C-alpha cells in the first residue's frame, strides 16, 4: 500500500515538485520514438532498449485520458495539476522505479497505439505497437525532426494562427520548410514576424512579436 501511495505522491514531480529533481522529460527517447515511427516497415518500438535508466513499470497516457481512469490505472490519487500536465501532451509515457516516477516522455502526436493492453507495461514486456491509423508525420524543420518539446510548441503556435484561404501559384521564398501534419509550409522570417504558406493546403498565416521569435528559435 505504501508503494502505491508513493506513486501518487511522486507523480507530483511531473509538475516540478522539489522532492525528486531527477524527474525529467527524456527528449532523446521522444526523438528516437519519432524517428522509429517514420521508418517504413517498423510497426513497434521497444522502449527498454531506448532507456538508459532503471525502471520496472511504465504507463501510457493521452490527452484524452480521464482522471478517474488514470487513478484506477496507477491505483493512487492524482491531482488536477498533474492531470493538466498529462493532457498537455498528445501522449505521455511515464516510467516508475521502486514506486517512484523517474522519467517521462512527451510525444507531440499519437505515435503509440492507444491499446488497453499497452496502457500499462513493464521492462520485460516493453515493445509498444505504433498507431497504424495515424495519418500525420513527425514535425520537421527541413530534414531535422523536432524534439517532442519543440514539436509541442510548434503545434500550439500553428493552432493559434488565423489562417487565410489563398491560392498561391508560387509560395513564399522560404528561410526554412516546416513539415506539419503531412503538409509542407514555407516559412519566411522578417525582423518582427513569421509568414507561412502552404501550396498543398492553399493557406497563408502570420505570427508576430514573441511568438515569431519563438518559432524562429525552434526552426532556425
Question: What does this protein structure show overall?
Answer:
The structure is a single chain. The protein has 220 residues and is of the alpha+beta class. It is 28% helix and 28% strand. The protein is built from 6 helices and 14 strands. The chain has helices at residues 2-10, 27-38, 67-74, 80-88, 148-160, 209-219; strands spanning 24-25, 44-46, 57-62, 91-97, 100-107, 120-122, 127-129, 140-141, 144-145, 164-165, 176-180, 183-189, 193-198, 203-208. The strands form 3 sheets. It has a 7-stranded antiparallel β-sheet. The longest helix is centred in the C-terminal third of the chain and has 13 residues, at 148-160. The N and C termini lie far apart (50 Å).
Q: What kind of assembly state do the chains in view correspond to? A: single chain
Give the helices and strands as they follow along the chain: HEHEEHHEEEEEEHEEEEEH
Question: Which structural class matches the secondary elements?
Answer: alpha+beta
Most strands sheet: 7 strands, antiparallel
Overall pLDDT confidence: 82
Please tally the β strands and state the result.
14
**Percent of residues in beta strands?**
25-35%
Q: How would you sum up the global shape?
A: elongated
The low-pLDDT segments are: 1-10
Count of helical regions: 6
What level of helicity do the residues show? 25-40%
Amino acid at each position: 500500500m505504501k508503494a502505491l501511495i508513493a506513486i501518487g505522491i511522486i507523480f507530483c514531480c511531473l509538475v516540478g515538485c522539489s522532492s525528486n529533481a531527477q524527474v525529467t522529460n527524456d527528449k532523446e527517447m521522444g526523438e528516437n520514438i519519432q524517428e522509429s515511427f517514420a521508418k517504413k516497415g517498423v510497426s513497434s518500438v521497444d522502449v527498454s532498449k531506448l532507456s538508459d535508466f532503471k525502471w520496472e513499470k511504465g504507463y501510457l497516457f493521452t490527452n484524452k485520458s480521464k482522471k478517474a481512469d488514470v487513478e484506477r490505472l496507477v491505483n493512487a490519487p492524482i491531482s488536477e495539476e498533474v492531470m493538466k500536465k498529462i493532457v498537455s501532451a498528445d501522449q505521455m509515457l511515464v516510467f516508475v522505479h521502486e514506486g517512484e516516477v523517474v522519467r517521462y516522455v512527451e510525444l507531440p502526436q499519437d505515435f503509440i497505439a492507444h491499446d488497453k493492453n499497452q496502457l500499462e507495461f513493464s521492462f520485460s514486456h516493453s515493445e509498444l505497437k505504433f498507431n497504424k491509423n495515424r495519418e500525420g508525420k513527425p514535425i520537421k524543420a527541413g530534414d531535422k525532426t523536432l524534439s517532442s518539446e519543440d514539436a509541442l510548441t510548434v503545434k500550439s503556435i500553428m493552432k493559434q494562427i488565423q489562417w487565410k484561404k489563398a491560392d498561391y501559384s508560387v509560395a513564399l521564398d522560404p528561410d526554412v520548410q516546416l513539415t506539419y501534419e503531412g503538409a509542407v509550409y514555407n516559412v519566411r522570417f522578417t525582423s518582427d514576424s513569421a509568414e507561412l504558406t502552404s501550396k498543398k493546403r492553399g493557406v497563408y498565416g502570420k505570427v508576430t512579436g514573441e511568438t515569431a521569435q519563438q518559432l524562429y528559435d525552434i526552426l532556425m
